[in-house]
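Budget justification aside, the reviewers requested a transparent look at the raw inputs and outputs of the sequence design task funded under Objective 1. We therefore reproduce one unedited record. The lines immediately below are the structure tokens for a 270-residue chain.
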């Protein structure tokens, strides 16, 4: 089902450029890099398959880093909250942030390994493939519980996601850990959920919406990996709150330039 998130993604970009490579008026270092990356995206495995999030060398000093993901409705505001969490819990600087919007929880990709946002060309549509919107990140195993606490805060006192107007399996509540419910920290994650009145159940893949159920699906992130979303959807303003500001939005440019954001091969603005 098309959502407010989807409609705004069309309205906030001009019809000519919403899903095509823009033509800048004058060349810049970043635009040259984007053009080069766009040409090789179809032949680059990292651009078309499940993404492994790579923290910076500073973060790599942490013990036992793991790729996890969390979803609760439209991923724009979820990314913002986890950027704040990376800074407050891990003390990460801008070039060390790993939280990225993406898709997970489905079985399929297209023949090129892509999972894409809804688009006019119907290329690798994540909804049709059974995926939900998530934010993936790389964090120490010892901090999974802390991030779970922040995640369940997203549901407020009523145990509902912030954007109930977005309906459908694409917006279901889900989280992914290596091993799923067998992850060493799962008991702590489950306890954090119960403290907010939430029930955690194993996801089977392509699961339905959780709206009104106080339910979160738990996925084994090794079996249901994270697929990074398009550049357009990274560090994006949310439609429920005032704009996060240019300083936040510009983090996407920096992450693209240093390789933390990949060119996905999906219709996009880069």
């Amino acid at each position: 089902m098309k959502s407010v998130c989807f409609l705004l993604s069309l309205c906030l970009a001009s019809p000519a450029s919403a899903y095509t490579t823009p033509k800048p008026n004058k060349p810049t270092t970043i635009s040259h890099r984007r053009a080069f990356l766009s040409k090789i995206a179809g032949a680059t495995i990292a651009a078309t398959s499940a993404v492994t999030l790579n923290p910076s060398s500073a973060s790599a000093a942490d013990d036992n880093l793991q790729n996890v993901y969390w979803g609760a409705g439209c991923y724009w505001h979820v990314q913002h909250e986890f950027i704040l969490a990376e800074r407050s819990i891990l003390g990460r600087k801008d070039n060390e942030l790993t939280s990225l919007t993406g898709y997970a929880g489905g079985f399929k990709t297209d023949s090129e390994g892509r999972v894409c946002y809804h688009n006019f060309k119907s290329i690798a549509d994540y909804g049709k493939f059974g995926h939900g919107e998530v934010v993936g990140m790389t964090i120490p195993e010892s901090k999974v519980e802390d991030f779970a606490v922040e995640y369940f805060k997203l549901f407020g006192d009523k145990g509902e996601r912030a954007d109930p107007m977005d309906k459908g399996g694409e917006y279901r509540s889900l989280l992914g850990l290596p091993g799923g419910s067998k992850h060493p920290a799962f008991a702590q994650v489950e306890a954090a959920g119960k403290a907010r009145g939430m029930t955690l159940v194993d996801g089977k893949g392509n699961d339905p919406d959780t709206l009104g159920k106080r339910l979160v699906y738990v996925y084994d992130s090794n079996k249901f990996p994270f697929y990074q979303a398009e550049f357009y959807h990274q560090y994006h303003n949310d439609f429920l709150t005032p704009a996060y500001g240019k300083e936040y939005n510009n983090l996407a440019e920096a992450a693209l330039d240093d390789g933390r954001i990949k060119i996905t091969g999906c219709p996009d603005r880069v």
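The chain has eight helices and seven strands. The mean pLDDT is 85. Computational costs for records of this kind are itemized in the attached budget.
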